[in-house]
Amino acid sequence: MIKRSSRLATVTVGVALLFTLLPLAYLLSVSLMKQGEISAGIVWPSNPEWGNWVDAAASRLPRGILNSVITSLGGAVLTLVIALPAAWAMVRYRTGGRTLAATILSPWLLPPIVAVVPLFTLLRVLGLNNTLAGLTIVYALANTAVAVWLLEGFVRKLPVELDEAAQLDGAGAFRVLGSIVVPLLTPGLVAVGVIVAVLNYNEFVLATFLTQGPEAQTVPVVLSLMLGERLQDFGKIAAASLIGVIPVFAAAVFLQRWLVAGLVSGSVK
Amino acid sequence: MLSLIVLGFYPLIFIVLTALSESSLGRPFQEWVGTANLEAALGDDDVVASLLRNTIYAIFVSAASAVLGVATALALFRSARSGAVVRTLLLLPMITPPVVVGILWKLIFNPSGGLFNTVLSFFGYSGDPVSVLASPTFAFLGIAVADVWEWTPLIALLVFAALLGQDPELTEAAALDGAGGIRLFAQITLPAIAGTIAAAFLIRIVLAFKVFDLVYIMTAGGPGQSTTVPAYLIYQAALQQFDLGRAGTITLLLAVVVTVVTLPVVAITRRLHHD
């Protein structure tokens, strides 16, 4: 197709970029301001200083980032382990027909706050309250439905003949899954894994109500606690926010192709 | 299967049971009260108002995100200059943690020295600093701006992917037949991406009904009740008043409202995908 570039299109992209990046640039600017400058109504500090970044790095934030990375990656791997056989069974063996896919996705319609009390009670019974293990398990289960939904699109594109050939050669269902489906589906698994990991990393409601101490609190919780302090230090909060988003932004830059592939596969099937 | 039971059905049953009983956080299911909780919630103006508020909000931010998202996607598609770097940058809001999004816009709307007021005064405004998030009229608009900023990239991405997936021969044939500009868009491009737009709109509405982090961070439901969404009421009922019966009831009412609002969109999405 002849791709014509129009001036209107370029201007629109420019405006979209400005609207997208300006708030993030302002966050950077505030993180480099001194307390007095923040309330002075300036756009960029005359003397940018990294003091806020040093303060933020000395807070509970690094521990929070570690907790976030552990729970989001651990949760994502567990989610894939549960979701792949489910998605595969639903596509290949029509398990549950059309209703099952819709049914397991239905809790996603409600805000996660509604699950806090039942999950809190459940974790207390299991003795996993305020632990990274507990939060990881909750994340693993919380995104299983979304992962199944996204993976379905990838599984559908696999040629069914490969499965059949392996079965003719005497491979059982789990053997087919392990030796045929998983290797072929690696791009899809990475894509869905990245999305789920980002969702976990950004999750706030479950993390804030299911953890009570620094040993299990994640980045969003640490940030909300800074905002709740009696003397709000906006410069430090801005710096902490930026440090906190580095892992997801890095993931987005390096894994952009997979992130996009995963999101698109879910909606266009 | 286990995860299905634990995460899908256990909370659901828990919610239904609490809605039908007098329950506190420490001692759930003290006494069965039938529909008393439901009657109380439906007679409570705060509950009804918050459901209505969230419905209007969801439709408004979804429409805004859809228009901006489709415009961005079309522009990306038609602009030769936008490479992978531009696309990655445009996706950033979507992967920013909602808590950070809330902090970011709270700083921008900060009455003492925030970017919003700095820009206002740059354009000649000289009155008292405007405190967007402390105004009963504008606070929800402030949250809406943050919400639109956060989720418009998702719609742009999905629609952009649909544009790339079009059959190029069809567009070329139409162009050869003399269709151009608006006609080409309305008769060839729009029908090809309508299904995706509808699906993206559906996802967007649901996300808008789930808004909690932004409200919690930016306004805490205030001033007054002006930004109290049902998710926030559920939080207050369950974790501040320890009244699980009320929380469960509001949850069920919200589920009904979300279903009713999304049903027409689901129907449209299905029809567009089957054409």
What does this structure look like?
The complex is a heterodimer of chains A (269) and B (275). Chain A is built from 15 helices and no strands. Chain A is mainly alpha-helical. Chain A folds into two domains: 1-49, no CATH class; 55-267, MetI-like (MetI-like fold). Chain B has a single domain, classed as MetI-like (MetI-like fold, Orthogonal Bundle), CATH 1.10.3720. Chain B contains twelve helices and two strands, in the order H-E-E-H-H-H-H-H-H-H-H-H-H-H. In chain B, helix 5 packs across helix 7 and helix 7 (139-164) packs across helix 9 (181-209). The longest helix of chain B is centred in the N-terminal third of the chain and has 34 residues, at 45-78. In chain B, 45% of the residues are buried. At the A-B interface, helix 1, helix 6, helix 7, helix 11 and helix 13 of A face helix 1, helix 3, helix 4, helix 5 and helix 6 of B.
Question: How does the SSE layout of this entry go?
Answer:
The complex is a heterodimer of chains A (269) and B (275).
Chain A: H1 7-31, H2 35-38, H3 51-57, H4 61-92, H5 97-105, H6 116-126, H7 132-142, H8 144-157, H9 160-168, H10 173-184, H11 186-202, H12 205-210, H13 219-228, H14 234-254, H15 256-267
Chain B: H1 2-19, E1 21-22, E2 31-32, H2 36-42, H3 45-78, H4 84-95, H5 98-108, H6 115-122, H7 139-164, H8 168-176, H9 181-209, H10 213-218, H11 230-240, H12 244-274
Helix pairs in contact in B: 1-12, 2-12, 3-7, 3-9, 4-7, 5-7, 7-9, 9-12, 11-12
Brief account:
Chain A is mainly α and 269 residues long. In chain A, 74% of the residues lie in helices and 0% in strands. Chain A has helices at residues 7-31, 35-38, 51-57, 61-92, 97-105, 116-126, 132-142, 144-157, 160-168, 173-184, 186-202, 205-210, 219-228, 234-254, 256-267.
